[in-house]
Design a protein that fits this description.
Radius of gyration: 19 Å
Shape: globular
CATH class of the largest domain: Alpha Beta
CATH architecture of the largest domain: 3-Layer(aba) Sandwich
CATH topology of the largest domain: Rossmann fold
Length: 299
């Protein structure tokens, strides 16, 4: 059984990015700059955004953090995003989710310029991905694809079951795993809350990607021997034995599933670090002004 070590692999990617930034600096080129917008004081969101700022420092990017009060109105946020859109020094924009109820996620997503949408959520980027055109791919799916590629996990001709159909992970993963490329060329089944007998599907799967946000959902009795398992879930579960008072759990019951696996991601240390590395990669491409030329979704 091979652990798909996202922490180790993300560090390799960040080193590759840092080396390229060093080269850009030596040639007097544009240093990549990422702006993050955070609304409110959600603890998990604050931690994640702070991590992104540190990642930028590590690879030599510039970064801007815009923090807004939780009572911020929709128009005020839209105006803040538009200011970043219009700032030529900033290459990439992320607006941390979730947003307060008074703000439309769709409106915020659509106001970000596609060429600065390094989160890959804008309809233009989603549409280009579906068509197999160059696009920014959402960071978590892109990170997963990098993990599969760098560990040389065979995907061609395999049965891939994805649990969860969110716009952020499940749906784009279904498209990427089915595309005519490597990784890809899978026969894909997308399971969700209305799927009858998910176990029947997962038992036939060569690859399972669990992205539904339910700790320990996928158990050993639901998978066959030799399966590849990608655990996207990460939930804080109360744990009085931990100093922090909680433990981080994935959607996969690691203890019962891992003995059957050929490859599996841990939680934490699997998909999470790859998501952050993918965001940096997209920002680097944005700074290189290669939006429709170098960030290819197909071979």
């Amino acid at each position: 059984m091979t652990i798909l070590d996202g922490k180790k692999t993300s560090e390799q990617i960040k080193q590759e990015i840092a080396d390229e930034v060093t080269k850009i600096k030596s040639e007097g080129g544009k240093i990549p700059h990422l702006a993050a917008v955070l609304v409110g004081k959600d603890g998990a969101s604050q931690t994640y955004v702070n991590s992104k700022v540190k990642d930028c420092e590590q690879v030599g990017f510039g970064s801007t953090l815009v923090q807004l009060d939780e009572n911020t109105g929709e128009q005020e946020l839209l105006d803040s995003v538009q200011e970043i859109n219009d700032n030529p020094d900033i290459d990439g924009i992320i607006v941390q989710l979730p947003l307060p109820d008074q703000i439309s996620v769709q409106k915020v997503t659509e106001i970000i310029r596609p060429e600065k949408d390094v989160d890959g959520f804008h309809p233009v980027n989603v549409g280009r991905m579906v068509k197999g055109l160059p696009a920014y791919i959402a960071a978590t799916p892109f990170g997963i694809m990098q993990l599969l590629e760098r560990y040389q996990v065979e995907t061609s001709g395999k049965n891939c079951v994805i649990i969860g159909r969110s716009d952020i992970v499940g749906t784009p993963m279904s498209i990427l795993m089915a595309r005519k490329a490597n990784p890809g060329n899978c026969t894909v089944t997308l399971c969700h809350s209305r799927t009858k007998d998910i176990k029947a599907h997962t038992l036939e799967a060569d690859i399972v990607i669990a992205a539904l946000g339910r700790p320990g959902f996928l158990t050993g009795e639901m998978v066959k021997d030799g399966v590849v398992v990608i655990d996207v879930g990460i939930t804080r579960v109360p744990d009085s034995t931990r100093k922090r008072g909680y433990a981080l759990k994935g959607d996969v019951d690691f203890d019962s599933v891992s003995p059957k696996c050929s490859h599996i991601t841990p939680v934490p240390g699997g998909v999470g670090p790859m998501t952050r590395a993918a965001l940096l990669w997209n920002t680097l491409q944005a700074a290189k002004n290669s939006f429709y030329h170098s960030v290819a979704t197909t071979e």
